[in-house]
Amino acid sequence: MMYDSTAHLLLTPVDKEAPKRVRRLRRLGIGLRPDLAFDAFADRLAEVTGAPYSMVNFIDENRQFFAGLHTPDAMGAGSELTSTAATESTAHRYMARDHGYCPHVIVRRKALVLEDVCDYPRFAGNPVVDEIGIRSYLGAPLIDRTGIALGTVCVVDVEPRPWGRAGLETIKAMAAELIEQIHRREDGGI
Questions:
Q1: 85-139 residue pLDDT tens
Q2: Which of 6, 12, 105, 122 gets the most CB atoms within 10 Å of its CB?
Q3: CA nearest to 155, candidates 75, 61, 57, 65
């Protein structure tokens, strides 16, 4: 994990599985470009949870890539979370690995519920709080049949959200559904 000596907190977790994950993602042909099916999944995830932002996120050694992305229609073009004509540009679909909470989900291999990130000193100092205004997070890992955590599905909001047990169960169910879609793709079914 990266250590911030000024705050005395462990920030971004060390991800020893990243090289193996990257090889698996390349074999699957995912995680390098926007994907209309993943965008549709992110749209549905936002609808189901009522969150303004949702992502299908794949993580390599250095950055995160939102292969599926849902943002509010009114979002400005300068934001890191803005989708620019889904399949035309990937510039706004990347985020540094030390930004956000998905790298923690990948390493923990467990869902993470942060109803108000400011309630957790370890997470409140994350750059997405100040730079983007993120206040709540709900995410689950995408663990495939080989046991590799490929990425995450997540939703975020700029307001605190009482996700509760229902939110946790929803995000876990959505992750399971998406991993089944990925397996069907791999098997030639999609």
A1: 344 456 689 988 888 899 999 999 999 999 999 998 888 887 788 778 899 999 9
A2: 105
A3: 57
Give the residue carrying structure tokens 């996120």.
Answer: 57
- The pLDDT value recorded for residue 127 is 78
Rounded distance between C-alpha atoms, residue 19 and residue 3, angstroms: 22
Rounded to an integer, what distance in angstroms lies between the CA atom of residue 10 and that of residue 102? 15
Q: Please give the DSSP secondary-structure letter assigned to residue 14.
A: P
Evaluate if residue 77 carries a pLDDT over 60: no
Q: What is the pLDDT of residues 133-158, one digit of tens each?
A: 899 999 999 999 999 999 999 999 99
Quote the DSSP letter at residue 33. Answer: S
Amino acid in the structure at residue 129: V
DSSP states of 45-108: HHHHHT-SEEEEEEE-SSEEEEEEEE--TT--TTSTT--STTTT--GGGEEETTSSSHHHHHHH
Helices (H) and strands (E) in the chain, counts: 6, 8
String of b and e for 44-73 (b: at least 16 CB within 10 Å)? bbbeebebbbbbbbbbbeeebbbbbbbbee
